[in-house]
Structure formats: structure tokens, C-alpha cells
Specification:
There is one protein chain. This protein is α/β, with parallel strands linked by helices and 307 residues long. 25% of the residues lie in helices and 24% in strands. The chain has three domains: 67 residues, OB fold (Dihydrolipoamide Acetyltransferase, E2P); 144 residues, P-loop containing nucleotide triphosphate hydrolases (Rossmann fold); 61 residues, Ribonucleotide Reductase Protein R1, domain 1, CATH 1.10.40.50. The protein is built from eight helices and 13 strands. A six-stranded mixed beta sheet has the order 10-9-8-11-13-12, with helices on both faces. A five-stranded mixed barrel has the order 1-2-3-5-4. Strands 6-7 form a two-stranded antiparallel sheet. The longest helix is centred in the middle third of the chain and has 16 residues. 35% of the residues are buried. It binds guanosine-5'-diphosphate, magnesium ion and zinc ion (ZN). Zinc ion (ZN) binds next to helix 7.
């Protein structure tokens, strides 16, 4: 029987079978994915083969090949990684321009990671009800220039005032969508709006379950109409995993596009003459903000991000 992992706490999984039944499941024996050093062999979004042992209990015997996954370095074991979610069709990166203010560099690091793992991202600007000053309206216009310019889809919403939530609701149909972003941007509030019955506050039960550990990552998937959404804890930063410095510009789509015209094939777009990227920045075809993020990522001390 095939099922979908919808929840993962410790060594327990909740698996949803294709006919909609939920099973508490555990892994039989040592289930290891080939060539992959991960702390968790199975993640939310994985499709698995289960054999039921009772009406509510099952054993996971096999993980099906993944379409993609999102991964980050485990804290102390530098060679191990933790899979956050698998088989994601799209990420909604939820950001806010105020309360809290999402940093552009955080957004760019997130986008680079998603590009590297080939996961499409839409940027969802939440709390637009708060953008009531001229300065914030200008910030919003600037944000659009930067990220539309880089080729990303942007949706402005307000979970509080129910603005454009219908767009979110229709875009999640037929897909697995991961809601990600800093804490407090309103990921859970948006999901509650598209699925009012969910009342994500009750997921505070999981808090009680994991009491005492503030750092527990807890990803949970919910069925909404014909789609699945994954709510996630707030993330602060992303360890860019095993990324070759000379390849980082591949994951900035607009930089990659201009790089084709650089004089040197091995151009790092920093100091080289006749660099088409630097020229595009000067002419405003690539935003300075994105280019600065690129430079910062280049300067990363690789070990620092192995968190
Ligand atoms: N003004 C305003 N506040 C919002 C909006 N969406 C969420 N919030 C508030 O932002 C806070 C954090 O929301 P929450 O969904 O818990 O954020 P999460 O950590 O990303 O899941 C809560 O106090 C929400 O009531 C919005 O559209 N406008
Ligand atoms: Mg939340
Ligand atoms: Zn160049």
C-alpha cells in the first residue's frame, strides 16, 4: 500500500494512504537512502510503501524515489543533513515588509537554495494591510522592482483582512505547497484562512509533545481541497549545502542570463574587466540589492553555514 508522510515527530510518522486513511507508522529496521547521509531517512512529503498491522498502525517498508527535497545541515554533525520536506511542487516564501521586516539577503539566500534544488518559489508578501505610509508603499514598489526584475512571481496578501487569499487557495490545488519564511510573518494565519476548519492553534498540541525543546523542527502537511500544504516553523537562515562558489551565480536567474556575455568564461562578476553582469548592475538591469547578496554569499565562510 502506498502512502504520503504528512507528519513526522521523532520516530513516529503519520501516513495518509491514497484512500485517505491515516496510520501511525514506524520504520522497520534500518531504512537508508542510497548515498545520502541524513539524520532522517524519511520526511514530510515522502511517498512510502506501508504494510498495515492494524486499523491504525502500519510499518513503513520502503521510501519511493524523491522528485526533490529541501535539506539543511544538521547542527553539529557537519557531514550529516536533515531533510525538511520532500516532493514539494512549490514554495510560498512568505515575507513581510514590516512587523517583522524580512531581510532581502535572507530572501536571496532562500531563493538560491530553492533554485539549486529546482523548487519553484512564489513570494507572498503578507500583512499588506499594514503598508499605510508613503515610505512603506515605496518600499513595496521597490520590492516589486527587485523581485519581478529577477523573474519571480509575487502575490500581495493580508491574512488579517482576507485580501487575495483566494489566489493562494486556487494556486495550491493539485500541488504540494510548502509555506516557509521567518517566524511571525503569518504562515499559519494564511493557512488558517484557506482552511478555516484547520485552526492551526490546535497544532500547539505538538508543542506540548515536544516540550522543552525550542529547536525542534516540526513540519506538518494538511489537505486543503485538492491540494496539500505544509506549515513549517520559522527559519532564520539556510545553510547553503555543498555549493561550489563558481556556480553560485547560476542560482540568480537574472545574473546567470547576463553572465553569458562576460568576456571571460570563468568570470566571477567581481573584479574582471568587461563583465556583463557588473555592466547590467550599473545600468539598473540587475538590482544592486540582488548583486550585493550575490557578493555576500561569495564571501561566505563555508563552515559558518554548516548549521
Ligand atoms: N496586521 C496583520 N497581522 C497579521 C497578518 N497575518 C498574520 N498576522 C499576525 O502575525 C502574527 C504571526 O502570525 P503567524 O501566523 O503565527 O506567523 P508564522 O510564525 O509565520 O506562522 C500573529 O499575531 C498574526 O495575527 C496580516 O495579514 N496582517
Ligand atoms: Mg506558524
Ligand atoms: Zn562577469
Amino acid at each position: 500500500m502506498i502512502g504520503l508522510i504528512v507528519k513526522h515527530t521523532g520516530s513516529n510518522y503519520t501516513v495518509r494512504s491514497d484512500d485517505g486513511l491515516l496510520y501511525n507508522a514506524t520504520v522497520r529496521g534500518k531504512l537508508r537512502l542510497k548515498d545520502m547521509k541524513t539524520t532522517n531517512p524519511i520526511a514530510v512529503g515522502d511517498r512510502v510503501i506501508i504494510s498495515p498491522v492494524s486499523e491504525k498502525e502500519a510499518v513503513i517498508t520502503e521510501v519511493q524515489p524523491r522528485k526533490n527535497y529541501i535539506i539543511r545541515r544538521s547542527s553539529n554533525l557537519s557531514r550529516q543533513a536533515h531533510i525538511l520536506a520532500a516532493n514539494v511542487d512549490r514554495v510560498f516564501l512568505v515575507v513581510t515588509l514590516t512587523l517583522p521586516e524580512t531581510r532581502y539577503e535572507f530572501i536571496d539566500r532562500f531563493l538560491v537554495t530553492a533554485e539549486a534544488y529546482k523548487i519553484p518559489v512564489w513570494i507572498v508578501i503578507n500583512k499588506i494591510d499594514l503598508l499605510d505610509t508613503k515610505a512603506l508603499q515605496e518600499e513595496l514598489e521597490y520590492f516589486h522592482r527587485v523581485y519581478s526584475g529577477a523573474g519571480y512571481e509575487i502575490v500581495e496578501v493580508s491574512a488579517l483582512k482576507n485580501i487575495n487569499i483566494d489566489i493562494i487557495k486556487s494556486e495550491i490545488q493539485g500541488k504540494i505547497t510548502l509555506f516557509s519564511g521567518n517566524s511571525g510573518v503569518g504562515k499559519s494565519a494564511i493557512i488558517n484562512r484557506i482552511a478555516p476548519g484547520l485552526d492551526l492553534k490546535t497544532s500547539a498540541i505538538s508543542k506540548a509533545h515536544n516540550k522543552g525543546t525550542h529547536t525542534t523542527t516540526f513540519y506538518e502537511m494538511f489537505e486543503v481541497g485538492e491540494g496539500f500544504v505544509i506549515d513549517s516553523p520559522g527559519i532564520k537562515g539556510f545553510g547553503l549545502i555543498d555549493m561550489d562558489k563558481t556556480e553560485i551565480y547560476h542560482f540568480f536567474p537574472e545574473i546567470f542570463k547576463f553572465a553569458a556575455d562576460c568576456r571571460f568564461g570563468m568570470c566571477s562578476h567581481t573584479h574582471e574587466p568587461e563583465c556583463a553582469v557588473k555592466k547590467a548592475v550599473k545600468q539598473g538591469d540587475i538590482s544592486e540589492s540582488r548583486y550585493l547578496s550575490y557578493l555576500k554569499i561569495l564571501e561566505d565562510d563555508n563552515d559558518k553555514y554548516r548549521r
